[in-house]
Design a protein that fits this description.
homodimer; 172 residues; Arc Repressor Mutant, subunit A; 3-stranded antiparallel beta sheet; DNA-binding
Chain lengths: 172, 172
DNA sequence: TCGAGATACTTAACATGTTAAGTGACTGCG
DNA sequence: CGCAGTCACTTAACATGTTAAGTATCTCGA
């Protein structure tokens, strides 16, 4: 269906096109990528000062809110793939920011928790992080920010169960 | 076989600790990341069938719309960092999907353009890509999609010139 | 109880993100 | 001219994204 997508008033488009595709810079993936980059650009320098990457920070934050978590659960929470998480946990453990112990009931599972040093590091970064977030919120507008996140959640929902074999159906 | 009623809703350990931070999963960066991943998950398998990564596809699309571009210009258009682009161009050139020649007026500059093979490859992928995009548009709603992209653009704008990147601040 | 299959990670291999340093080519100023 | 500074990339080094294999453990049913 798609009755009629609003015609973008194509302001410039100075160059001739030979391929029938939407203007590349207006694609949804690009919009999302640029927006996210604009946001993360604000946080990265501060995290870097503390020797943390964005992903490492995500893991610490996720762990700070709970007693302990299995690796798979943590991967879901921090939105990281297993292999990435595996590497990062190895590193964080070596830096004594987290602790691990195998679950007694199932030797395959590893319970991960934040260490005292990890908590300390979080405490030293959180204020700056919150300040940056507050600045972003103020600039963009709290209401619009909430609206945006609502829409992002809806987008995620409307695409849930499209690409990945989730239930039954065919594989390929 | 082995039907296995997994336990996703496992009793788990909802132990919460009082930490003075927003709920991690509701942060703007995470919302943007998840939304983008939900979208890209739809495209990646098809691109992979054609031996292309998301970034390689971005470059080909960017090049298809113009005659030729300098590397720096291409990096801006495809939203890639110089080093990434450098590596990808090396690969794409080896696969004869693009062509390069140094500018006559300035030996430092390299002019990049898509090759015949590149155009052919694009033609073979574009239909599926557009179909997927249409499906996403339909599911989420064309109007909402336009709204979302508008907001993403505004977010980007409101953060422009905040990051301590170079540039003497202010505007231009 | 035993073994095929499932599960929970971990490794491997390759591609990109990210920052810093390197290389060759231009530019401006003396 | 000459050469220090800049520019346009490219390399390097390390971290993560992504898919495929590998390893150890656990589960279930014949």
């Amino acid at each position: 269906m798609a009755k009629r997508p609003p015609d973008p008033a194509n302001g410039n488009a100075p160059v001739a096109r030979q391929v029938p595709m939407r203007d590349f810079s207006r694609s949804l993936p690009m919009s999302l990528l640029r927006a996210r980059e604009a946001v993360m650009r604000q946080f990265r320098p501060k995290l870097r000062e503390h020797g943390l990457t964005e992903q490492q920070w995500r893991i610490l934050r996720a762990l700070a809110a709970i007693e302990a978590a299995e690796v798979t659960e943590l991967a879901r929470t921090a939105f990281l793939l297993g292999p990435s998480l595996s590497r990062i946990l190895r590193d964080l453990e070596a830096r004594n920011l987290i602790e691990r112990r195998t679950a007694k009931s199932d030797q395959r599972r590893s319970m991960v928790s934040i260490s005292k040093d990890g908590v300390k590091l979080m405490a030293s970064v959180a204020p700056s992080s919150e300040a940056i977030y507050a600045e972003i919120t103020q600039r963009f507008g709290a209401r619009k920010l909430a609206e945006l996140q609502e829409m992002l959640g809806e987008l995620e929902q409307s695409l849930a169960g499209l690409g990945a074999a989730d239930g039954a159906s065919a594989e390929e």
